[in-house]
Design goal:
Strand content: over 45%
Oligomer: single chain
Strand order of the largest sheet: 1-2-3-4
Helix content: 25-40%
Low-confidence stretches: none
Shape: globular
Radius of gyration: 13 Å
Number of strands: 7
Length: 96
C-alpha cells in the first residue's frame, strides 16, 4: 500500500496545499504558506461544488476544516480517495 501525493493551489488565498492519500484510510493536508496540517479519515471527507469552486470538508474529531479547490482538482482528489478506499476494501477482504 503506497500513499498517493498531490499538490494543488487553493482557491481564494492561492496557497499551496500538499495532499497525502493513505490507502489505510487517512487523508493528510499541509497548507505550505500557513504551516498548518489537517488530518481525517477518508470516510470523513465530503465535497460540495458551487460555480466551479469545490469545497472540501473534513472532520477531525470535534473540529471541522474546509478548503476550496478548483473543480477539476477536487474531482481528481476524490477519484484518488475512491481508489484508496477500494484498495483498502480489497485488502480487508483478502485478510479475512
Amino acid at each position: 500500500m503506497i500513499s498517493t501525493h498531490r499538490d494543488y493551489v487553493l482557491e481564494g488565498k492561492h496557497h499551496h496545499a500538499h495532499f497525502e492519500i493513505n490507502p489505510a484510510g487517512e487523508l493528510a493536508v499541509e497548507i505550505v504558506e500557513e504551516k498548518t496540517r489537517h488530518r481525517c479519515e477518508l470516510d470523513q471527507v465530503s465535497m460540495s461544488s458551487d460555480h466551479g469552486v469545490a469545497k472540501l470538508v473534513g472532520q477531525q474529531g470535534s473540529d471541522d476544516w474546509q478548503l476550496e479547490l478548483r473543480a477539476n482538482d477536487a474531482k481528481e482528489l476524490f477519484s484518488l480517495i475512491a481508489k484508496a478506499n477500494e484498495e483498502y476494501e480489497i485488502l480487508m477482504r483478502d485478510l479475512c
